[in-house]
Amino acid sequence: MKILFVCTGNTCRSCMAEAIFNKLSDIEGVEAYSAGISIMPRSKTSKNAAILIKENFNLDISEREAVQLTEEDLRKSDLILTMTTYMKELICEAFPQYQNKIYTLNGYVDLENDVMDPYGGDMKTYKTTFDMLNKGVELLLHKLKGR
To answer: Is the Hydrolase keyword given for this protein (predicted)?
Structure first.
């Protein structure tokens, strides 16, 4: 099973969600990826996101380059989880053939609100987003194990 996390630039939220999921998951054959709907080519993971992943999971994602979302990504993914309702709607409108597997992360795990974009914020802002993602991913793993 392939899970795709999607945010705007693939330098903060979705790449943190990918790292958290792949580190915490012990489900055989399930792997997460991430992409952005509008990336800056060659942009790297934001400094604060990389620091939080390093401190909490001992993973270095600081040199990871942003990945542009493509239709191929949507086609090959079994579950697509966006960070906001707006992103979900944009993707569903552009690619209606995949709408049956596109959800917001928080909606899929019965949490309220969108995952806040920390881009340009201080470490406290990034930590708030990291905590939201960590909770969402833990609930996602629980849900996937129960299926």
So the answer is: yes
Find, among 58, 46, 48, the residue nearest to 20 by Cα. Answer: 58
Judge whether 19 and 53 are in contact, CB under 8 Å.
yes
Which are the catalytic amino acids?
7, 13, 117
CB atoms under 10 Å from CB of 45, counted, come to 22
Average pLDDT, the chain: 98
**pTM given for the model:** 0.97
Res 147: pLDDT? 67
pLDDT band at 38 (very low <50, low <70, confident <90, very high): very high
- Listed in sequence order, the residues at least 6 apart from 38 whose beta carbon sits closer than 8 Å to its beta carbon are 8, 9
Which H or E run includes 17?
helix 13-24
Structure tokens at 17: 């969600």
Q: Could you say which DSSP state residue 32 is in?
A: E
* Domains defined for the chain, CATH in brackets: 2-145 (3.40.50.2300)
